[in-house]
Description:
Elements (H helix, E strand, L loop, with lengths): L3 H5 L40 E7 L2 H17 L4 E7 L2 H4 L5 H4 L7 H9 L4 E5 L11 E6 L7 E5 L16 E3 L3 H10 L4 E3 L5 H9 L7 E5 H6 L6 E4 L18 E6 L3 H6 L6 H16 L8 E9 L2 E9 L6 E9 L3 H17 L2 H10 L11
Helix pairs in contact: 10-11
Bound molecules: ligand PBG.
The site of the ligand NCc1[nH]cc(CCC(=O)O)c1CC(=O)O has 15 residues, from strand 8 and helix 8.
InterPro entries: HemC, Porphobilin_deaminase_cofac_BS, Porphobilin_deaminase_N, Porphobilinogen_deaminase_C, Porphobilinogen_deaminase_C_sf
Family: Belongs to the HMBS family.
GO cellular component, one term: cytoplasm
Amino acid sequence: MATHEQLESTSSRPVLDPTLTMQDESSKDVAPSAAFKRKSDEANITADTIHIGTRKSALAVIQAEMVLAELKKAHPETQYEIHAMSTMGDKNQVTALHEFGAKSLWTHELEAQLLEGKLDLIVHCLKDMPTQLPPKCTIGCIMEREDPRDCVIMKKGLEYKTLLELPEGSVVGTSSVRRSAQVKRKYPHLKFKDVRGNVGTRLNKLDAADGEYTCLILAAAGIIRMNWKDRITQYLDSKTVGGGLLHAVGQGALAIEIREGDEKTLNVLAELINEDSTFAGTAERSLMRTLEGGCSVPIGVETTWIEKGKLLMKAIVVSLDGTESVEAERLGEVLNVRDADEFGWELAQDLVKKGAAKILEAINLNRPVIAEGGGA
Length: 376
Ligand SMILES: NCc1[nH]cc(CCC(=O)O)c1CC(=O)O
């Protein structure tokens, strides 16, 4: 159970039926005009203060500050204020994420303030956003993507760099079934152990003298934004030898959530929109939404722009123990958000035809499942 929508209804929704047409609501994930705003649309921006909401973790605050700096560059006449809030998820780090189930616990309080008008926008990692946003909320902007790959960080003092070098029984820290299930397939000699908390907390747990982890697998984007890039010892994408791990949907991209129909804020965001990231992010989210993956199913993706407007997307669905998997890829023209939505949906259908439904159904029957882990 991952999204608001899923919580309300959908256990019996026949989304895995390949004969179904694309769901209508999927096309409004990103505000329709968001990808097409141009500078000339800025005419009615006033000098009011823009209130920026974020979670309170160090990474979340850095990300909000990055957004503020970009906004200031685009609109120096406007005032900006960052409001950092502890969310339910932050306050309850002890309870396993899958006991809460809902990914929304990282965003719910912030969204309430957005809808009340106390905030004008919320800065998120796209990866942490449910594929169905609450009513009246929408994505106003997806920014240029940071490195979307997963990476390995070794415990301080160890001389290993890659997973292949690790001795039998070494312990990989990750709370993501997407990561553990994919890595298990390639490296059956490794052990996996949950690791919780913000990125900084996880690194401290890794380096602790009495620590139990040999290495961690994390998103490179968060590590780079925290200025810890020199701790990365291996990248785990499909193009790197020894990698072979497809990343999470939306990984590496920042997204800005706004109130639906808030043209003023949408205009302020115009310069921050990155078209390639928006289309790739939309396609990835459409795939995930079609498979009803939420954050609780091991779905990996990798999108590459072969040339402008030509997208290659690989995707994998893995069983929780890593023993079964279905892979598919698609190359096609993506020139707008609508194309992107359809592209993701089509690739999801390919996965279903190859047997992904069986893996997903087995996972759904055995809920609750461990979430990707919303604690950036
Ligand atoms: N799971 C939490 C989370 N959400 C976003 C990021 C990284 C930054 C990003 O993807 O933009 C992380 C940390 C991680 O997975 O290592």
